[in-house]
Hints:
Elements lengths: L2 H26 L14 H21 L5 H18 L5 E6 L2 E3 L13 H12 L4 E4 L5 H28 L2 H13 L1 H7 L5 E3 L9 H14 L22
Antiparallel strand pairs: 1-2, 1-3, 3-4
Amino acid sequence: MTPKSLAKSVRSGSEELLVSGQLALRAKEPEIVPSTEPARPNPELAVGRFLESFLVLLRSVRLYNKHHPRVLESLEATEKDLRTALRLLPCVAIGVERDRLIAPLIGEHSLTAHGLELTTLAQELSRCGVTSLVFLSETNLGELDTLARLLNAASLRTSAQARRDAETKHAAAHEISHEAHGRNWGARLAEHRISSIQANRAIHRKADPALATLTAALLACGGVSHPTGEEPAATEYAITRSKP
């Protein structure tokens, strides 16, 4: 055997040993079986995604005209995320507490854990005088679009008023204007024929799963409009459990 043939034979043998060793190691590795258990639905995550999409819709409405592709795209994404949340909840109820948003039907903790974007949305809604929003299962694209435009208009008015107050130093007048602004949301929604979205209603925090069902029944049967825009403080979205 020539030196060249010997070197080739040695190299071939080494490669066979290497391959054999790799196969042996692989045989010893435990087989990883992918889990077949489906992921559990997460209402909090679904609501958070819907709110983030709604904020994008608000920004799109502010930047583009009504029929711009970006607006239509944002509107469809918002409606899709709302439908996802409504498959997990009887309604999407959001409470606004200055710099944070809460979902009483899910828990008492802040939804801002999903990102700084929700803090921005909370601040914007608060400036517009909105203390709560409830989206019923009948909410449609037209209502979402109209709500976004009403909030955008309110935000622009509030910002302009704040600048005027800063120039004239009439802070007290701004507070009065802000409160009156919030009380008018019921009338404003009714005026624009929005019946599946309700604003500034009192929302109880979640006590147990049974209250969620009771909440849905209340919203379906008692969600009436008030032409004057005055939402009665006694109207609650959750009631105490009846005795057996």
